[in-house]
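Obj.: predict assembly geometry.
Materials: sequence records (below).
Method: joint structure prediction, all chains together.
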Amino acid sequence: MEIRFAPQGVVGQAAMGETILAAADRAGVAIERVCGGRGSCGKCRVLVSGALSEPTASEMRHLSPQELAQGYRLACQARALSDLDVTVPDASRVAGVSILTGGIANHYPIEPWVTRHTLAVPPASLEDPVSDLDAVQRIWAREGRGGLRPTLRAMRALPAALRDRGGEITLVQVDGELVDIIPGPPTGCLLGIAFDVGTTTVVGYLLDLESGQELAVASELNPQTRFGDDVVSRIQYAGERPQGLDELQREIVGALGRIIRETTAQAEARPADVLAVTIAGNTTMQHLLLGVSPAHLAQAPYVPAITQAVSLRAGELGLDAHPDAHVWVMPSIAGWVGGDTVGVLLATGICEQDELALAIDIGTNGEMALGSRQRLITCSTAAGPAFEGAHISCGMRAADGAIDAVQIDHAVRWSAIGGSAPRGICGSGLVDAIAELLRVGVIDPRGKLLEPAAVSAAGYSALAEQIRGEGRHRAFVIAPGVQLGQRDIRELQLAKGAIRSGIEILMKELGVGAADVRKVYLAGAFGNYIRPESAVAIGLMPRFRNAELTPVGNAAGSGAKMALLSRAARARAAALPAQVEYLELSGRPDFQEQFAEAMLF
Amino acid sequence: MEIRFAPQGVVGQAAMGETILAAADRAGVAIERVCGGRGSCGKCRVLVSGALSEPTASEMRHLSPQELAQGYRLACQARALSDLDVTVPDASRVAGVSILTGGIANHYPIEPWVTRHTLAVPPASLEDPVSDLDAVQRIWAREGRGGLRPTLRAMRALPAALRDRGGEITLVQVDGELVDIIPGPPTGCLLGIAFDVGTTTVVGYLLDLESGQELAVASELNPQTRFGDDVVSRIQYAGERPQGLDELQREIVGALGRIIRETTAQAEARPADVLAVTIAGNTTMQHLLLGVSPAHLAQAPYVPAITQAVSLRAGELGLDAHPDAHVWVMPSIAGWVGGDTVGVLLATGICEQDELALAIDIGTNGEMALGSRQRLITCSTAAGPAFEGAHISCGMRAADGAIDAVQIDHAVRWSAIGGSAPRGICGSGLVDAIAELLRVGVIDPRGKLLEPAAVSAAGYSALAEQIRGEGRHRAFVIAPGVQLGQRDIRELQLAKGAIRSGIEILMKELGVGAADVRKVYLAGAFGNYIRPESAVAIGLMPRFRNAELTPVGNAAGSGAKMALLSRAARARAAALPAQVEYLELSGRPDFQEQFAEAMLF
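Observations (raw structure tokens):
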């Protein structure tokens, strides 16, 4: 059944009897919770119309009878019994920047690489003075299992654990390595965390590894931002300062640690309970996290130090988790197509499908992949941060007060995130605005903002009054204090031109046209909120008339979650780069030509 | 050919043309050197008679013509061309406690687990933008080699190393793990260090892993001694204080680090150059080093936490070596038969021989092994520290001023280590003295020191004058200020009784007599210096009339060196405990009986 979320405008799917929170998480609608969705914090209140399960005791406690009568419910408690319309009040939205914490996920069985087993070990005697470890291994082997590889910490825990509960112990293994020995039967959850490490934003998803349930989500601005907004400036910082690389590494490891502390606190657990970590980031972010120099990514031939998946212990990175937790960093495909794109490929499953599909992940860079199970090509274009609201005079991130949708006929109508007074415009609002201004003729196909007289002459006198200034300083007022200047339009032309020419070159390389594409996945915050018609109207992408368009939210994060929960998914991710081709656009003579053309509307 | 070392009284073997230093090291005669035996420090001067190679340039530089004429040579330069008599002057003996740093060694090929390989890696290009690691692995695979498993540090070193010398790099691997990547061809030695971690003394042998050459030796009193002289008091300390185990662990790791710094400085290298470490110690010392509680070793059924070999990274232990160096800790056989005994078994090779052999390693505890390739049994007896000079009124370690040999007819003759005035008596002197006093009848077979009158009556009036005091306070004066009291004799009776009853029970268990034994190996400092006739005279061991007696010096240390230099030797050591039986004497009703009898002379 369908759940329509407002004000996000996202439509999610729910199974009969599933909680609204589960559906929201999957759809990428961020709803606040502090208790991990257990009904104890009362933070996830939403306003619902449609058929729902009866209010639970927890809802009775957190909501007044009046509120219940108005339709307020707790998203973690109320279960869908029909299609629903759900309004998420400001207070229930995840604070700060609006970040997609959901996404789609392919179907892999839950088969985590962290496991636990309980054994009863008989005591040693003078006749059989077997060592503690040998006694455990003997029972382990008797159950038909292989060797045990204890870490030093597990060895240290062994003697006391073995004697605390009369020989009953629980062994905790990560990838076959024995990392902990706990007296008695299992208690609590086995925890893991999946990270999407973006250039701008870092998101962590704390999961119960056995059930696959998401217990908590938290995000933070990437603190490396203070050393440079974009990838290239950070590569420069790392290379030019003696301690630059160390500083950048410490910053990001510190941020991941804060997110681990925050999410484990929400789930009433400790960082040391986190036993598995996956990381998806672009190639540079992954290098910086490992403390490996990304210097050679910044100049031709754009060579990364490492593209294969890396597995190491949390203690080696200095990450605040169980010191013997395994941290698995996604493989990359090339210097500018990183582990985040591998996450997108894993989550969308386009490498397993026979149908021709396109995946686009738009951030500061636009990575895209076109193809199918038979052949898949990826490339990256430097779109710049315009879609994230940067380098745009009134641009801002998709946070409270950002205009995120615009409609224009004879007047301008807009909506702003959080329902508050507009403070600026974000990527999806920008694309909408330009698409609409093009349609009514306020902007011409070369990107020029017309004179008020010309607009008036075309019958849009109300819009003409919104035009201020002259020449390069001309601007169109969208809302009080929020305007779109000629230079902003030029920025957007550069950005959309880069994405569009990437798509065109990929189609050319595969020998296909837009009509051949059957599926289009739009990943990332921008991809999730953009209106496809507007994207086509400005020429960001061609019209895929035979394709189903699917916004997939934070697909890179979804890929990281899948690799965390499933050995098979992780193995698939590790093998993906070898199956995927990479196209270096800077090496192609036709790219500049294509780009010049794609900049026009 | 034979080399007789004075004042040690040790006879070593040398191949034609071998240096005196090499023969001395093997024989367990500690000769000072600071340069690692390269002829640059001039510290190893010895006085030699016999045929030698011509003086080298280094000897010309360090010795005057007069000294050369007198017979002074540098032990690291002079090569044996005949049997030799070598006197090691005080100044050339290793300073401080006299510790055996040599020992015998079985023949295993040198095949270290640290290796290095040089590769030429072609640069990446826009057409082939391969990552640094993949570029290296491609060349590596082309040479028919398997996967490379780089540590995080190696990954971090890669980008700069690859570009420093036009793609020529040297890969350094430890047990197949890629721990370092160095620009250009190999430089310097590959270093490893083997440790014998005794309850009282710690010795480290720094080896060139490719040549097998010993570059430096250093030793230190085990700093845990300040928390208790013996194993049991340290187990108590670890168990009773909240931080006790941590303290003991830090102390021993600190001592190993100091020895690494000292030996690497001697060899003009750095601690970070040490890539492999082996550890042989008794079971408790190995537990304390790992920070694993030895609490259950102190009470029946005397269960260790760990007996199998342990391999970990130096960084995990906090050891001052290359952080990714592998530390390999010998396996143990039981709670009181540890990795040091495994080292003795490996070095003597008695598990590979068809002949019945006995190995005895006497320290604070006496570990012994009897058997052959077919069947081998080990046990441990609490001899106490009498043979190390402790609990003996004038007892001292085998250091300068210790009486280490005694002969008595009508007068007492003695020699003291270092040729200086006697300050006390060490184990071998003690055994000599009691054997001689028994022979002339000053001590009776029950261990009683006779009255002067009785000694006089037996015709030893000069010896009678050396007897002082009465009853339990009676004592025999050996040298000015050094006397042997009635209680000292009782201490020695307990110690030798423990060893002897262990030997008897092992023989009984195997169903053999002393005449069946073909080889006896005496390990440890005491075993190296004791006069076998005296040991038999006091009943420490039976007369093995058909056996060859071999002092094998620090055989535990030799075993650790072998495991360091040879994968095959290390694998053999790891497999040894499964082949060896352990006899728990405290579980045997006949032990107390045997012990009571063995206490008599």
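Conclusions so far: The interface with chain B takes residues 124-134, 152, 155-156, 158-160, 163, 290-293, 295-296, 300-308, 310, 312, 316-317, 332, 334-335, 582, 584, 586-587 of chain A (CB under 8 Å).
To do: check interface contacts against the pulldown list.
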